[in-house]
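Homework-ish question, so no full write-ups if that breaks the rules, but can someone show me the predicted structure for this set?
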Amino acid sequence: MTNLTATVADPAASDAPVIAYPTPLLRIDGVTKKFGAHSAVDDLSLDIKAGEFFALLGPSGCGKTTLLRMLAGFEAPDTGKIELNGEDIAAVLPHQRPVNMMFQNYALFPHLNVRDNIGFGLKSAGLTRLGIDTRVAEMVALVKLQGLEKRRPDQLSGGQKQRVALARALARHPQLLLLDEPLAALDKKLREETQVELMALQRQLGTTFVIVTHDQEEAMTMADRIGVMNDGRLQQVATPRQLYEAPASRWVAEFVGDINIIEGGITHRDSHRLTIAGRDVGTLFAIEPRQPVGDAVICVAIRPEKIRLSRRGPATDLVNSGAMNSLEGVISDVGYLGGRSLYKVKLDRGATLRVALANTARLDVDAYSMGERVAAWFAPDDCVVLVQ
Amino acid sequence: MSARRIFTAPARLAAIPPYVWMVLFFLVPFGFVLKISLSQTAIAQPPYMPVFGLSEGIDGLKASFAALSLDNFRLLVSDNLYLASYLRSVLVAVVSTLILLAVGYPIAYGMARLPRRWQGIAMMLVIVPFWTSFLIRIYAWINILQHDGLLNKVLLALHVVSTPVVWLSTDSAMYLGIVYSYLPFMILPLYATLAKQDPSLIEAAADLGVSRIDAFWLVTVPLSLRGVGAGALLCFIPIMGEFVIPDLLAGSNALMIGQTLWLEFFTNKDWPVASATAIVLLGLLLIPLLVYDRLQRRQLEAR
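A: Not a homework solution, just the prediction itself:
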C-alpha cells in the first residue's frame, strides 16, 4: 500500500540515509490561528504517522488545545493546511471527518444511558440496528464496562465516565483519535492505571492517537513522540528519551524534568570537547553538540541524577585530563523523597547544584548530611550544551 | 435519610412563615369558597344561605350543615353553558401554550446562543414590557387592531388589502393578546435551561457524525424538556382562568370559564354557582400540575 522502500543505506555514502517515507497520516503545514491579535497557534508544521501515539505537551495557554480543536474541525486555521491522508480537510465539517475526539470533561450526554452514549454516532455512520448493537457490545467489552449499559452518566464514577467517553470516541473506528487531557479528572493511582490501559488499547487497535496534556510524566509514559509547545509554536518534536536527554533549547530543558543550568562562555575547543568557564562554577568540560555552537556564550545543562557525590573527589588525573568535572561544595539542603533524595550543594564558587541520588539501601548510615563537604562530579558526556 | 438531617431546628423554623401564609391566604379563603359553593343563592346580605353562626345555638349550626348541598355542582354538569366554557378554556389554553412554545423556543434558543454580554440585554428586552401596566398594553392592542387602527392603516397603505379587515373581537386577536402577554413566562424558563447546557455536548454530537439539525433534536431538545414543562405550566394554568384578554379582544359568542364565572358573580349575583365554578376550575388545574410533578419525580428516580 505505502512505499516504505528504504534504500539500503551505504554507510560511507552519506550521514543521513535517504529514506522515502510514506505519506504521513496527518500533515499540519504552516498552520496559524489567531484570536484577536494573539496567535494561539503560530506557523506550526508537524507530521504524524499512522499508528503513532503522539503527545502535545505544553503549559496551559500554549495553543495545544486550539491545535487539537482544529484537527477535530471545531476551529478553522487562518492560514496553512491540515491534510489527512494527503487530502486537505480544512473545508470538511467536524461531523464528516474520520476523526473523533475524547473531550476533557467527557461531554457525555446526560439524558442517555451508557449504551446510547456509545452508540450515539453509529446511526449516522450508516450502521444497521443490529450492527449498532454489535459494535456497542464490542466497545463495552473493550473498555470493560459490562453490566453498566443501562446506567446514566450521573450514576457512574469518574473512571467509568472516562471509559464511556473513550468507547464512544472509538466506536466509529476513527483513523485519528484526539484526546484532550483525557486523564486530568482522575486521581493519581487511577490515572497511572489508565495510562497503561490506554497504551495497550492503542497498540491493540493500531489507531493513531493524538493526546493533549500538560502533564509531562503522562506524555513521557504513553507517547511514542512528544511535541513540546510554547506560545503557539513547537519547541521540539522528539521521543521521550531524546526530549529528556537532548533537549533542543534551554526552555525545553527547563520545562521537561528537573535540570541544573549553568551559564558560561566557551574558552577553548579541541576535537569535539569544549572547555567552558561557568559562572559561579569554574571550569567545566563538555562534549560539543552535534550542531556546533557558534556563540561563545552558552549554558550547560545537567540533570540532577547525572551528578554523583562523594566525600573525596574523583582521581585527580581524571579531573586534570578533562575526563570528569568535579566541583567542591557543602551540602545546604537534603530532601528525602522515598525512592531518592534530593540534595542541594552550595559550591565554593557560589552556584548551587541540585543532585538526586537513589536511596539504594534501607539503612543508609553513610548518607550525606547538612553542612558536609562533598565533591559533586559528572562526566562531560552528561552535560548538554545549549545556546543561551 | 441524611437529607433530613441537614435541616436543623432553626432551618425548620424558617419554613413556618410560608406555611402560615398558605393557610391564611389560600386554605382559609378556599374554605369560604367551598362553603359558599355548597350553599343556596338568596336575596339577602350576604346573597346566600345558610349563614353559619352561633346566634341560634348548636342546633342552628347543625341545621346550617344539613342545608348544604351539591345542587350547584349538579347544575354545572347539567347545563351545557358551563361545559362549553370549560372546554373552550382548555382549548384556548392548549392552543395558546403550543403557539407560545413555537414562538418562545426559538427566541430563548437565540438568546442562549448570544455572546455573554448581550444575553443580559436580551433578557431586559423580554422583561421591559412588564414595566407598563398589563391593561394599558391590552388597550394598546385594541388601538392597533381596531377598524381604523394602525394595522389596517398599514395594510391599506401597502395595498395588501383594499378594505379594512375585522381584527378586533375575533379569536385571532385573543390569541395574539394571550401570546403577547404570556411570552416572557415561556421564554424565561426555557432560556434558563438552554443557557445552562454545556456547549461541548453539541460539539461532541458533531464529532460523532451528527449534523447540526439532528444534534438539536437529539441533544438540545431532550435536555431542555424541564424548561419546556415549566414554561408550559406557567402559561397554561393562568391562561385557563384568563378573563381580561378574551373579554377585551375576543368576540362574545363563546365564553371562557373565567368570563362565565364573572357573569355568575357580578351579573347574576349567584355567588354559590360562581364558587362551584371556581372549585371545579381548581380541580381541573390540578391535573396538569400532578402530571408535571409525576414526570419530574420519575426523572429524579431515574438518577
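Now go work out the reasoning yourself. Hint: The mean pLDDT of chain B is 90.
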